[in-house]
Specification:
The chain is of the alpha+beta class and about 160 residues long. The protein contains four helices and six strands, in the order ααβββαβαββ.
């Protein structure tokens, strides 16, 4: 009797998936380094990479050439009262695509996912004036977390 022949293929598929994921991470890392307004931020590149890409889901838009136009990272969590919420990571649009509605589209998609997942609200922080203006334009308000003793932006979902 022959053994399972599917295992080598499975390992190959897994390895290819891991390699593709690593390539995608590196592409997003390069995009971030090229397009993030570091001069306006309180964070350095490594902080931004570690806090914004690692372990986050990514909503992304690409142009007709396959190049990234923008991406928005997020994750789902529960607060100390076991209420589900969505936490935004980084919102970034390529310089030449700004003002074309890329981030509006990405945010709408993330908001739809958050609602589908049963989240009651979305939170985010902004370390640039443009980020703050974007959050306010979407209806976010400044709130304060007594547990972490930090201010953040919050949008309640209907």
């Amino acid at each position: 009797m022959k053994g399972f022949e599917g295992f080598p293929i499975r390992k190959k598929e897994q390895k290819e998936a891991e390699e593709n994921e690593e390539e995608l991470y590196q592409e997003r890392e390069e995009f971030l380094k090229e397009n993030y307004p570091l001069g306006d931020s309180d964070y350095d590149v490594e902080d931004i990479l570690n806090n914004s890409l690692d372990g986050k889901e990514v909503m992304e838009k690409r142009d007709h050439s396959g190049d990234i136009e923008g991406f928005l990272t997020y994750s789902m969590a529960e607060d100390h009262e076991n209420v589900s919420y969505c936490s935004l990571g980084i919102a970034l649009t390529r310089e030449e695509s700004r003002g074309e509605g890329v981030m509006n589209e990405l945010f709408k998609d993330v908001k739809d996912v958050a609602k589908k997942e049963g989240c009651e609200y979305i939170v985010g922080i902004a370390d640039t004036l443009g980020g703050e203006e974007f959050l306010f334009s979407k209806g976010f308000f400044v709130d304060f977390d007594k547990i972490t003793n930090r201010s953040y932006y919050r949008l309640d979902l209907e």
